[in-house]
Amino acid sequence: MFIRLIRAGLPGLAIALVPMGEGVAHEIVGNRFFPATLGIDDPGVNDELSFPTVSSFKTGDDPSFKQRDISGEFSKRITEAFAVSFGVTHSHFSAPGGPTGFGADGFQNLETTFKYRLFKDPLHEFVMSVGLSVEWGRTGAQSVGAEQFNVYTPTLYVGKGFGDLPDALSWIRPVAVTGQFGYAIPGRRSTTTFGVDPDTGDPTVDTEFNPRVLNWGGTVQYSMPYLKSAVYDLGLPDFINRFIPLVEATMQTPVSNTFTSGTMTTGTINPGFLWVGNTFQVGVEALIPINRQSGTNVGVIAQLHFYLDDIDPRGIGKPIFGPAVQPASPFPRN
Amino acid sequence: MRNSAIGLTIPLLVLLATGEASAHAFLDHAEPRVGNTVATAPREVTLWFTQKLEPAFSTITVTNSAGQRIDTGKARVSGSQMTIGLRPGGAGTYHVTWRVLSVDTHTTDGSFSFQVGK
After folding, report:
1. Torsion sign (Cα): A312, A49, A274, A214
2. 10-residue block means of pLDDT along chain B (118 residues)?
3. B118 touches chain A (CB under 8 A)
4. CATH number at residue B72
5. Which tens digits make up the pLDDT trace of A24-40?
6. Does A278 lie at the interface with B, CB-CB under 8 angstroms?
7. Is position A185 within any domain?
8. Size of interface A-B (CB pairs under 8 A)
9. Model-level ipTM above the cut of 0.85
10. What single DSSP character describes residue A6?
């Protein structure tokens, strides 16, 4: 979803092809609980609902304008290791944004993600998944930058907890890192726009090449629940023991077909925190642009996320086929 | 859109606050406490979980610093609490490994250590 912010901030650049998937899913691997993160997707597969995710950001356009988004994503396991998610985002551009300069409102393209957990090693708290996201062209409003063609993004997701460090480094065991590496492939190599020169009245043709974009990012997390239940119980209040401070990074780098987009990397660094409950989590992060083209001030993103597998383990929180095998960690999430 | 978001979110929160949601059983706390040091070897280890447990499928094993298993083998489960007796194991680092099945059929597992006499 945040990536959608960048997209609006850089009209005409390769960023227009970056998938707009927001962070969703959570995963349990041995002692490690990987929470859903806001900027990138976490490495796991589960039944869950992110709603709403809200953000406010000042784009990298010239002139810049404020964009507010609200989005939701629902993920459903088909089997224990395979899930399909559906996401939708509504955008509001303040003036001077939008094609008329007076602002715009509308939905972005719908997105569907197919995700399969390839590998899970509880002992080393390692998990890896692969996915394919499809942004369905023509399902959103052009006034807020929704593309008229599909974008396909095969993606690799990884997560590693440091719980296997030696005793001398036990205070670092609550740390985990996750990463996401996607390659956005537009369904159309270029977009041609026909118009009329307002000065001469002559017809004009404008061709924009739709680049392929490396969509990458990561998180560094320090889990207070992990610290309490697997390393050292400091006797802190329960409210404190549910925090997971983290820093996310979400980046987009055009890598081919970049004739009109350039190859500049854009993105943000997002420091913030998650608070993990029994059946839901909340998260808040700042959005710090890495350069002028990524935004003109610090934005904010917040999310409410529901663990459907915990809310309704025998119903919607259960895979459609097969058992809900989900070995988990000792984290006191309630 | 914003109004409809609020309209959908509030009922969800009310459902969570009032419903019978039953989640994974996670370790809430333990005695001896996770990572802490006790002066003498405890006679038992007790774990408190966040959900009620199924006794037949919930286990604890405890090993001492020599890697020898020193638990008595049979855990006692009462609601969300599980206790296991210990044989004398001397000083050093004790390692606790647990695996439980909550009443909602979710299996969870984990491990931690505590120190004796250091």
Report:
1. positive
2. 54 50 78 96 95 91 95 93 94 94 82 90
3. no
4. 2.60.40.1220
5. 457 888 889 999 999 99
6. yes
7. yes
8. 120
9. no
10. H
